[in-house]
Amino acid sequence: MEKTLLLKGVKAIVTCDAEDRVYRGADLLVRGGRIESIAVPQAGAGAGDCAVPQAGAGIADTGVPQAGADIAGRSEVAADEVIDGSRYIVYPGLVNTHHHFFQTFVRNLIRVDFVNVTLAEWLDEIYRIFAHIDGDVIYYSSLTAMADLVKHGCTTAFDHQYCFTTATGKTPIDRQFAAAREIGIRYHAGRGTNTLPRSEGSTMPDEMVESTQEFLDDCARVIGLYHNPDPLSYAQIVMAPCQPINCYRDTFTETVRMAREAGVRMHTHLCEGENDIMLERWGKRTLAWAEEAGFIGDDVWYAHGWDLLPEEYAVMGRTGTGVSHCPTPAILGGSPILPMQQMQRAGINISLGCDGSATNDSSNLLDALRTGWLMQAWHSKARGGCISPYEMLKIATVNGAKTLGRTDIGYLAPGMAADFFLIDADTLELTATAHDAKNLLARTGVTGPVAMTFIGGKAVYADGKIAGIDERALAAEGAEVLARVLSGKCAAYQNLD
Ligand SMILES: [Zn+2]
Prior knowledge:
Elements: E1 4-10, E2 12-14, E3 22-23, E4 26-31, E5 34-39, H1 73-78, E6 81-84, E7 88-92, E8 94-96, H2 119-130, H3 135-151, E9 154-161, H4 172-183, E10 186-193, H5 212-226, E11 235-241, H6 249-262, E12 265-270, H7 275-282, H8 286-292, E13 300-304, H9 310-319, E14 322-325, H10 327-332, H11 340-345, E15 350-352, H12 365-378, H13 380-383, H14 389-396, H15 398-403, E16 420-424, H16 437-443, E17 452-455, E18 458-462, E19 465-466, H17 471-487
Parallel strand pairs: 1-6, 2-7, 8-9, 9-10, 10-11, 11-12, 12-13, 13-14, 14-15
Antiparallel strand pairs: 1-4, 2-3, 4-5, 7-16, 16-17, 17-18, 18-19
Helix pairs in contact: 3-4, 3-17, 5-6, 12-14, 14-16
Bound molecules: zinc ion (ZN).
């Protein structure tokens, strides 16, 4: 018997569907991990009737429940669990499309200061720390990042895992899937790599370099073990060489061949300030280089892209290639702010990412959502307007799902995965904001954790707790691992008081 959950009389349900519907006072019924219905009260409806919204029939943020309406009698009887939704606003789960979980253990390091050094200097410093990372750091840092994500409304996360050291061996993706199962999040693992040694011009320490063949062999292993392309999947693999300047060309061309054969998607860092090196090395900019390698298309997305030229937007749009925009590192690194409207007009699918914590220090995607919108607003006068806060929410939901190739997540409708989060709109700090539920998140912002996060209809985060784990015990274990593997050995963590 599939379990049912009923959110009853919800203050507002922001669906992010193609009609941008918002329902007020509706009931949301979940069965077996999917949304079964979103039912709106109908005046005069008889007991047991359940009005399922039809296209165009939504009450579209203006309707209010009618006095005497009697709905969801059937749902009430059937539901195993009922939640009074009258103080909550429900949103589709956020989708994170760029991160480096392992970097949550290199946070808050003022001596490795991304803000005040050049990228080359920063890479040189930070990789000295990365080179120590072992499998336990991968596991606990992934738990840390994913806890932050689910507490702030993220239900599906991609991670770009390129930290394969002598100490980790080939275990990182396995350790990350173990962590994802503990948290209950949908996890898309980007199997990254760096193949070019420092002696040939890369920024990588030798302990973190693999051969292309090693990389391909491990991709085949993890695809075979974990990749599930079915609807409601909790585990997928993406082939994700770290960046063109730190890999041989054949790492990319072989990735294209293998990924398309296996039916997995591809990802890399691109146009984040490396074009001068690519021009010197290859005589072409990175996008042209990637295009020539075949590493472009609607199964590919790049992180950042702030260095793309307007004429390159057309190439991206024509080929269906996506961009993951990571607002916080763009600010910390002083990078140009993406002209999102111009890029979207060119047909680029833009999604949202936290990016790794070495250049963010946080895995709070709600924070990235608001920061990203504020950045757009900052240029609105000069650029003739900017996207709305609600459009930023759709970038973090609908566009994220499209980026990952998922048709079962990203918006709320019958048949879709029951991935959503609730904010308590009856708190004092949110007073006088619920009249515009669509624009609230990016415009007003929600500080602190959300009220509840559901993934596949299961409350993975509620009442201040992540379900099924002893959070404080895991945090203590993580702190021990940090001390043993990193902070005890690296000066950047020491004598800071
Ligand atoms: Zn990154």
